From TrEMBL:
The keyword Chloroplast does not apply. This is Iron ABC transporter. The chain crosses the membrane at residues 6-27, 34-51, 57-75, 87-106, 142-161, 173-196, 202-222, 229-248, 254-273. Belongs to the ABC-3 integral membrane protein family. Keywords: Cell membrane, Membrane, Transmembrane, Transmembrane helix, Transport. It comes from Paenibacillus borealis.
């Protein structure tokens, strides 16, 4: 595959995976948790590096998952003690992210780990960091990881589809039916953390947040069926990735930033043109006022 094709494939995998996970974030009204985890995983990455002195490997994934789960647990703990959920998220993720930034500035030294890379990523470097696979050849490491994470996410979502549906729409009913609501919550937070860290190195925190929230929010305007929303959200994620790349080429600017911008364009189009909830459709459906 060509250099451009690897970039588009990697970004599309981010859009697919984040679109699927983002659907349940929106339905569970936990959109800002995506922002929290995408920033707090920086602390897990830094701590994993300080322990191992290596910038790649499974320890990075483990450290990020632990940081993501720690974020979810601290938010839940503060919320159970009477702190508003949005305030809990704000306090936890800013504190953990700040600790990660301080550790980078004071402990990491000359390693290629910096705040700008964490926020914006560097998807143009993805095709150069490859691994050899039997019968396939050289494959970018980030692309392979994203593909594996997509398979894991799809497997978990499909295996527990009914459970995800019930716990997302009516947690009280799920608890009354004997479903492990708390366990499902932390399993979902694990999926969010894994998705975030798999996307983190390639596209940075800003695009991860955009891809987790905006395509799903756009899809929510088009349908009230979960299965359709999942497909639309994943499709909007891929569309934003591809369109954002060509916008970046056209304007000669940040690829990740342009992809995040493209998600906003998709949302605006959905907000205006959705046949059920769009501004324009509601305007044209408005009953005419008959004046005497």
């Amino acid at each position: 595959m060509s250099y451009t094709a690897w970039i588009l494939l990697t970004a599309s995998l981010v859009g697919l995976t984040c679109g699927i996970i983002g659907t349940f974030l929106i339905l569970r009204r936990m959109a800002m948790m995506a922002d929290a985890i995408s920033h707090s995983v920086l602390l897990g990455i830094v701590v994993a590096f300080l322990i191992t002195k290596q910038l790649s490997g499974g320890h990075m994934l483990i450290g990020s998952i632990i940081a993501g789960l720690l974020t979810a647990m601290l938010v839940q703990f503060l919320h159970s003690r009477g702190v508003a959920q949005d305030a809990s998220i704000g306090v936890v993720f800013t504190t953990l992210f700040a600790v990660g930034v301080v550790l980078i500035a004071t402990k990491v030294g000359n390693a290629h780990l910096d705040v700008k890379h964490a926020l914006m990523g560097e998807i143009t470097f993805v095709p150069w960091n490859t691994v050899e696979l039997p019968w396939i050849g050289a494959v970018p490491q980030a692309t392979l990881m994203l593909f594996i994470v997509l398979i894991i996410v799809l497997a978990v979502i499909l295996a527990l589809y009914k459970e995800w549906k019930i716990t997302s729409f009516d947690p009280a009913l799920a608890a009354s039916l004997g479903l492990p609501v708390v366990l499902m919550h932390y399993l979902f937070m694990t999926l969010v953390s894994v998705t975030t860290v798999a996307s983190f190195d390639a596209v940075g925190a800003i695009m991860v947040v955009a891809m987790l929230i905006t395509p799903a929010a756009s899809a929510y305007l088009w349908t009230d069926r979960l299965s359709v929303m999942l497909m639309l959200s994943a499709g909007f994620g891929v569309l934003s990735a591809v369109a954002g790349y060509y916008i970046a080429v056209w304007l000669d600017t940040s690829i990740s930033g342009s992809m995040a911008f493209a998600t906003g364009l998709v949302f605006i189009a959905s907000f205006l043109g959705s046949p059920s909830s769009g501004v324009l459709s509601r305007f044209f459906r408005a009953p005419a006022v008959i004046e005497e």
